[in-house]
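I trust your eye. Have a critical look at both lines of this record:
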Amino acid sequence: MTTDPPPTQLVILRGNSASGKSSVAAGLRARYGRSIALVSQDTLRRDVLRERDVPGGANIGLIDLTVRHALEHGFPTVLEGMLYVAHYGVMLAGLLADHPGRTHCFYLDVPFEETLLRHATKPIAGEVDEGQLCSWYRSLDLLPGAVETVVPATSSLSDTIGLVMRSAGLTSQATPPAVR
């Protein structure tokens, strides 16, 4: 008798630049352990394709394929990025509709003033100025249908990681997922 593997978890972390998405994703991996897939919009868009964030960009399909591939192979998957609704909304809606397992979306809501303070501590602070940050900033760029939990800037990194883990049903995993 064969049993189907347990359904996978999909976590989507969205928010403006310097809202803490990458830190939360790294914290999830540290608490969960091996065998969790982290899909970063910045890695695929900027590093792999070296593409600007534009509507219809090639990175949108690559993100979609990467997330689906990880899920199909049994990995709990975290997708993190600014992921503007205007550019990525259709792709995200498709992921949400098609994923049969647990899916949880979080929007890290950080006011612009706090974004500036946090950005000043990042390695790209010397390359990206306040004007550029302002042009990227979208206040509460939420997905339709109230599918996202809005996490305020007052939530600590540890508390946010704990919230995501509890909500998504992520627990420490010592063994890798079964390969299908």
User: Anything to note?
Assistant: The radius of gyration is 16 Å. The chain has a mean pLDDT of 90. Residues 111 and 177 are 38 Å apart (CA to CA). The longest strand covers residues 102-109.
